[in-house]
Design goal:
Structural class: mainly beta
Mean pLDDT: 88
Radius of gyration: 22 Å
Number of helices: 5
Low-confidence stretches: 1-23
Number of strands: 29
Strand order of the largest sheet: 1-2-21-20-19-18
Length: about 400
């Protein structure tokens, strides 16, 4: 026990020396247990006043009127290739822009033929800047060469699991979260397990990164708003940042082994009646607009449920210099009417930022109505809506000393 205490003291001294003045501002604790580093943060960030990172708009693509190449119906997903070209999944095609925002070409078209799309679910850049687009309507993966020409397609194997989330890294790694299918009328699967898998450039599964209990947002009983769900992202060298949103706790996995645990205090907040009413009113507005009958609306209401408590966070992302970004969730009762219309994007602009060691740097606020989709270097690519609800692709530059507390 004395030896252990001495080694822990030496570890702490070494850590503070390595951190310099930044270490003196770190108010949490770092311990080691069975080879796993545990970083227990407080609400006090390392950044001193004036060191917080801010954002400056570097590029905006889009227009209210004019050339259709610069108008978007809905910016669903964004990808960036090794040359900095920007790929925007907009409905049933992909628009491609230069790093400076100049339109270059459109890939794909509505339909079921070669290279055509029924309902693109993501746009992903693989090795050699090949393009992979999962098509949820045609149940296949479309492949495109770097010049945009069709390179065939591969059947989506739903027997392996239903697609939940797709991720792509700057190094060309493509990953997917899959969940067991739950056919209507069939007995519920006992203890269902999700998996994060790596995909080859044709969409076939090449490896399994992790398996874990399925979330409850979508289940055989319907949809549970604010249910705890897995959240994850990958670094360029395929390290996995993973957590389940029922607690503020993230794990860093390297080669399938847990190496670091990051935690931060969180006070659970119950989901109130005003939150439920706000979401259900918005859903009913949509159903009426779609012409749903009273009977259909009653059935739909019975498929909607709410968790007892809000999740500790909404999503996670790997940022510059090994940082981890964690998005706060904004309760429905605090959303504006415009935000409620797009609540499926889970509005909220506050993010916590942790350095590569897992220490809490501080919180940042992204621009209002901005939905970040891709973190690349010191840039963030996303969709932004103006006061007329017109969408644009916006690139933000992270301003600040990216060396401060980030290495």
């Amino acid at each position: 026990m004395k030896t252990h205490k001495a080694s822990m003291a030496l570890l702490l001294v070494s850590f503070l020396v390595a951190c310099g003045s930044e270490g003196s501002r770190f108010a949490g604790t770092i311990t080691d247990s069975a080879g796993v580093t545990i970083v227990s943060n407080t609400d006090v960030g390392i950044w001193a006043p004036g060191e917080e990172w801010t954002f400056e708009e570097e590029l905006r693509i889009g227009a209210v009127e004019g050339a259709p190449e610069y108008q978007f119906g809905e910016v669903f997903r964004i990808a960036v290739d090794s040359k900095g070209r920007i790929f925007v999944l907009d409905g049933q095609h992909i628009k491609v822009y230069s790093p400076q925002g100049a339109y270059e070409q459109t890939i794909g078209a509505p339909g079921q033929g070669p290279g055509e799309l029924g309902a693109g679910m993501a746009v992903l850049i693989g090795a050699g800047d090949t393009l992979l687009v999962p098509d949820g309507r045609n149940l296949r993966f479309n492949r495109y060469a770097p010049d945009g020409s069709s390179a065939g397609s591969t059947r989506m194997v739903l027997e392996e699991g239903r697609p939940m989330t797709f991720k792509g890294t700057g190094s060309g790694v493509i990953a997917e979260q899959i969940r067991p299918l739950m056919p209507p009328g069939q007995p519920a699967i006992e203890n269902p397990m999700d998996a994060i898998v790596l995909l080859a450039t044709d969409g076939t599964v090449s490896d399994t990164v992790m398996t874990f209990p399925s979330g409850q947002f979508v289940s055989s009983s319907g949809v549970t708003i604010y249910a705890a769900e897995p959240a994850w992202d990958l670094t360029d060298d395929v390290q996995l940042v993973f957590g389940v949103s029922d607690e503020y706790r993230l794990g860093l996995y390297v080669g399938g082994q847990l190496e670091r645990v990051i935690s931060k205090p969180y006070a659970r907040r119950p989901v109130g009646d005003r939150d439920k009413e706000a979401i259900m009113s918005e859903m009913e507005r949509r159903w009426v607009g779609a012409g749903a009958s009273a009977e259909m609306m009653a059935r739909l209401r019975n498929r909607f449920h709410f968790a007892d408590f809000f999740p500790a966070f909404q999503t996670v992302a790997v940022g510059p210099r090994g940082t981890t970004w964690v998005k706060h969730l904004k309760p429905a009762s605090e959303l504006s009417a415009k935000e409620l219309e797009h609540y499926h994007e889970w509005p909220g602009q506050e993010w916590d930022v942790f350095d590569s060691r897992g220490r809490f740097l501080g919180a940042v606020t992204m621009p209002e109505s901005f939905n970040p989709m891709v973190f690349r270097g010191d840039k963030i690519y996303g969709a932004w809506r103006d006061e007329l609800d017109v969408e644009y692709v916006v690139v933000l530059q992270i301003d600040g000393d990216l060396g401060t507390g980030a290495t």
